[in-house]
């Protein structure tokens, strides 16, 4: 992975070069193929996930094994960050949908240590970034995501 891949993630737009490098150096990269599961609904969330290349979907298990798609990602992005921040379980399962996907993973405690020891102001930047991330997209996309979440079992 190079630093340019992280720069493509809107989540990191407000970070300085030094902050981005520290995060980059704290990630490890995995490569997964189509239909591989990254995490399951109900597992404890302990890490931040960044899609660098490829695509994936987040879904909930519905009645009689039916999948209810909550979101799909085809561009570099962060995902499942809310569960990690809230120290709860993943509300969805993440599955790779492209032939090959690259994912950067950073443990939550590494980010917290970084924030406390290096850049306390980064917490404010991250809060701002998450607020933008949650409300990004068209109103139709947001309504669809909320509807899928509401109607999922």
Q: Your description of this structure?
A:
This protein has helices spanning 3-7, 17-26, 81-85, 108-117, 122-135, 139-151; strands at residues 28-33, 37-39, 47-53, 56-61, 67-73, 77-79, 93-96, 100-107. Strands 1-8-3-6 form a 4-stranded antiparallel beta sheet. The chain has a 4-stranded antiparallel beta sheet with strand order 2-7-4-5. The mean pLDDT is 78. The chain is α+β, with helices and mostly antiparallel strands.
Strand content: 25-35%
Helical content class: 25-40%
Report the C-alpha radius of gyration, rounded: 15 Å
**Main beta-sheet strand count, sense and barrel state:** 4 strands, antiparallel
Order of helices and strands: HHEEEEEEHEEHHH
State the low-pLDDT regions, or none: none
Report the end-to-end length measured between terminal Cα atoms.
Answer: 37 Å
If you average the pLDDT, what whole number results? 78
* Strand order in the largest sheet: 1-8-3-6
Structural class: alpha+beta
Sum up the overall morphology in one term: globular
Individual helix count: 6
Instruction: Give the tally of β-strands.
Output: 8
């Amino acid at each position: 992975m190079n630093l340019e891949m992280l720069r493509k993630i809107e989540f990191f737009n407000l970070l300085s070069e030094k902050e981005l490098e520290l995060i980059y150096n704290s990630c490890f990269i995995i490569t997964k193929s189509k239909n591989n599961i990254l995490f399951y609904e109900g597992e404890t969330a302990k890490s931040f996930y960044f899609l660098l290349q490829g695509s994936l979907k987040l879904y909930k298990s519905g009645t009689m094994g039916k999948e209810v798609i909550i979101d799909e990602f085809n561009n570099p992005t962060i995902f499942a960050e809310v569960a990690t921040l809230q120290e709860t379980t993943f509300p969805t399962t993440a599955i790779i949908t492209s032939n090959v996907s690259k994912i950067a993973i950073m443990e939550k405690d590494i980010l917290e240590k970084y924030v406390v020891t290096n850049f306390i102001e980064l917490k404010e930047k991250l809060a701002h970034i998450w607020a933008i991330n949650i409300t990004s997209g068209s109103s139709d996309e947001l309504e669809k995501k909320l509807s899928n979440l509401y109607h999922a079992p």
